[in-house]
Amino acid sequence: MARRLSPFAFLRQPLAAAALLALTAGAQAQTTPTETVTVTGRSSALPATIAGFGDTPLARSPFQASVLNTGLLLDSGIDSLSEITRLDASIGDAYNAPGYWASMRVRGYELDNRHNYRRDGLPINAETALLMDNKESIEVLKGTSGAQAGISSPAGLVNFVVKRPRGDQKSVLLGWTESGSLKAAADIDQQLLDGKAGLRINASVEKLDPLQHDTEGHRHLLAAAGMLRLGNSGKLEAEVEFSHQSQPSIPGYSMLGDTLPKASTVDPRLNLNNQPWSLPVVFDGQTASLRWTQALSAQWQLSAQAMQQRLQTDDRAAFPVGLFDPVTYDCAPCDRYSADGHVSLWDFRSENEHRDTRAAALTLEGKLATGPLTHQVSTGLTWSKLTARFGPQTYNLAGTGTVDGKTEVPASPDALYTNTNRDERNVELHLRDVIDLSQATRLWLGLRHTRLSRGSVATDGSEPVSYDQSFTTPWLALTQQFTPTLMGYASWGQGIESDVAPNRPVYSNAGQPLPALKSRQTEVGVKFQDRELDATLTAFDIHRPVSSDLGACSDDGSCTRVSDGDARHRGLEASADWHNGPLTLRGSVMALRARREGAADDSQNGLVPANVAQRTLRASAIYALPQVPGLSLVATASHEGSRYVLPDNSVAIPGWTTWSLASRYQTRIAGHDTVLRVGVDNLFDQRAWQESPYQYGHVYLYPVAPRTFRASFQAFL
User: Fold this and answer.
1) Interval 633-684: pLDDT, tens
2) 3-class DSSP state for residue 688?
3) What residue spans of 87-235 are helical by DSSP H?
4) CA distances to 128, 132, 385, 387 from 356, in Å
5) In Å, what is the CA distance from 257 to each residue of 326, 337, 703?
6) What does the pLDDT read at residue 106?
7) What is the pLDDT of residue 27?
8) Angle made by CA atoms 111, 141, 102, in degrees to the nearest 5
9) Which tens digit of pLDDT belongs to each residue from 242-291?
10) Distances (CA, A) of 676 to 69, 87, 485, 717
11) How far apart are CA 202 and CA 171, in angstroms?
12) Nearest Cα to 236, choosing from 21, 400, 542, 31?
């Protein structure tokens, strides 16, 4: 039996132990009651801290980002990362399998779960279930991120901002989602030492029973965050988190031969991972961090952070792939299900996977003047180490099933195949400067130098690869404040990805790294903000290098991994938040032109990437009923245009639109503030294919979730 991660063993780790000691020291103090104050505001008035430019609000920043706070997630019925695609037109699905880790796209590019995610600014691994209950907000930075991250997809970055002590407030939440999912959560925020310290505890437990068949599971979270003020100018913060999720994953449907099945003919509740031997995917996560900030003067501040994340996963499924002969393993078809509804079911098991991330950062920031120019400067060093350790895995042909999910096949659990262990270390030095050229004009500069060391080896010791690279990524922008409410900006920047030819005899350059893959982005935009309206309009142009295997790739030395042209994404984004009296209108839209360019195989040029919608829209109307104080009604619309199913663009799924209704009623009961939320998603039970990932060389189709009712009750104590 696989050994699970132990919270007690984790707390014996040096960083986790230090975080626990800091939390314990603060918790031993006496409390002093204080007044609870609730502050609300537009996200444009907030900074996107992941961008690294301090407290500059989004409305005055030369980049696009979304800040999705706890209240918005609760009102929208969102309790998993994969669901935030409902809130922003620039964020889309990318093989977002229910019960598995979230996979998303931004501006049409897929996020890299190993390199595009942060937790309070430090890198984490997102190949796990990331629970939301102790998160203050989710920040999504859009576009290239070379100034913020040494290695990342050009899609942008996702940053989780952890809940920290804010004041004396306690809340409990009870939630229900059709068909029988139940949740209980508590958030206890306590001031200590006359406000010089604080402790915040978040806990949740959930029974998972969604509408899809055979997907029952459970998850829970326990987290603590503490704060201690050190004199008049220093602050020490610590936090620890333990999370667990156990739930079967849902594989996608597929084409039936050359036929794209109509979504209206396929039950959206169907789960083909329903064999008697199917096991849940189990995610265990443990994270601890320390953060120290010290004011050196009225203008300068020094901060130091350290974080450790430990993940353990049991990845298991009865996985449907193609139609294979059980003796010869010849396939017909290979990348979809058969025309008559038969499919090969594979027994996949990768038990006891371990992924560890350690990171630390030291940052100095402040203001200075050089002649008539003023500068807001930030410089610092970030170090990170990622390791992944696996055992032998199972991927055996168990038998032939049917797409109605009614055919049983025997298990085949022998672990006969190797996996790949990975190591990576990054050292990054950054410099950022915001220069006030005049009262209305600012020049923004960013520069990051990265030293990368990577290695991988199969679990049997074969196919070792290791290499080192260094690269520098610049970013610059210019902002012009035309009026107190209107700002324009233009920016240019680079991002970096790294690739290496697999260490296999078929490759002529086996084990050799490619030159650093530098993506480039140009962006121009305008932002408007007054008392009633926040609005943005942005145009972007991103070139991302593509790695390809050229040659016959059949005999030894016949294949060469090379950089082969670009994936170029150009688009327009617009968003608006208008408030007048009891009515608020919000929305975002993206028009995208994503194409392949410069490929050696000319037939590839001009193709649209599979599973990328070219038109998306998110819109909502919120009306606060004057006749019933505290009651708001919300109507939401989500639209996505068609997506190509096959890489050759010969088959596409049609676009779709869904509508949702919700209400939020805030009142006082027995002297306590309470919030009752009720909603129905996909109001008209729209049947459509939500996304069409071409994943692992196979076509998959995921349906729009059926009409779902939800309700929650939150009380502030």
Assistant:
1) 999 999 999 999 999 999 999 999 999 999 999 999 999 999 999 999 999 9
2) coil
3) none
4) 12, 20, 8, 5
5) 19, 6, 19
6) 97
7) 52
8) 35
9) 999 999 999 999 999 999 999 999 999 999 999 999 999 999 999 999 99
10) 18, 21, 36, 15
11) 10
12) 21
User: What pairing do the DSSP bridges indicate for beta strands 672-681 and 656-669?
Assistant: antiparallel
Q: How confident is the model at residue 713 (pLDDT cuts 50, 70, 90)?
A: very high
Q: Which residue has the tokens 């006891």?
A: 352
| High-pLDDT (> 90) share of the chain, % | 90
d(CA 440, CA 619) in angstroms, rounded, equals: 33
Bridge partners for 679 per DSSP = 662, 710
531-554 CB burial, b ≥16 within 10 A, e <16: eeebbbebbbebbbbbeebeeeee
The 3-state DSSP class for residue 713 equals strand
CA distance 423 to 501: 16
**Burial class of residue 12 (count of CB atoms within 10 Å of its CB; 0-12, 13-18, 19+):** exposed
- Please name which of 261, 584, 195, 241 lies closest in space to residue 404, comparing C-alpha atoms: 261
Which residues, in sequence order, are CB contacts of 585 under 8 Å at separation 6+? 576, 577, 578, 579, 619, 620, 621, 622
User: Measured between alpha carbons, how far is 453 from 470 in angstroms, rounded to an integer?
Assistant: 9
Q: Are 165 and 189 in contact (CB under 8 A)?
A: yes
Secondary structure (3-state) at 175: strand
pLDDT tens-digit readout, 582-609: 999 999 999 999 999 999 999 999 999 9
Output DSSP code: residue 70: H
Return phi, psi of residue 416, to 5°.
-110, -5
Comparing CA positions, the residue from 11, 10, 26 lying closest to residue 200 is 26
Which segment of 43-57, 84-98, 356-370, 461-475 scores lowest on mean pLDDT?
43-57
Which residue has tokens 């220093």? 234
C-alpha span between 334 and 331 (Å, rounded): 5
Structure tokens at 211: 């509408």
The DSSP element (H or E) to which 71 belongs, if any, is helix 70-75
Helices vs. strands in the chain: H and E counts, helices first: 3, 37
Cα of first residue to Cα of last residue in the chain, in angstroms, is: 43
Exposed/middle/buried for 172, CB within 10 Å: 0-12, 13-18, 19+? middle
Record the tokens describing residue 602, joined without a space.
Answer: 């000319």
**What digits encode the pLDDT tens for the residues 612-623?**
999 999 999 999
